[in-house]
Write a structure and sequence with these properties.
Layout (H helix, E strand, L loop, with lengths): L1 E4 L1 H14 L5 E8 L3 H15 L1 E3 L1 H8 L1
Parallel strand pairs: 1-2, 2-3
Helix pairs in contact: 1-2
């Protein structure tokens, strides 16, 4: 599971590396942040969904219980 600040930097680069290493990844979109709102939107709505599972925090917590 991936989340954090700098969606366009840390989250994106970690996701790419993890996928290259054949990890199954989940991005928790509501727990990611980027200083540029457009970068945040494009990555979570368009880029990440083509590469892995993207869910919101409530869904993630519900699945963990």
């Amino acid at each position: 599971m991936l989340f954090g600040i700098s969606t366009g930097g840390i989250v994106l680069s970690t996701l790419r590396q993890a996928l290259d290493l054949d990890f199954r990844c989940i991005v928790i979109a509501g727990c990611c942040h980027d200083a540029d709102a457009e970068v945040q939107r494009v990555l979570t709505d368009n880029v990440f969904v083509r590469q892995t599972t993207v869910i919101d925090a409530a869904t993630f917590v519900g699945q963990m219980l």
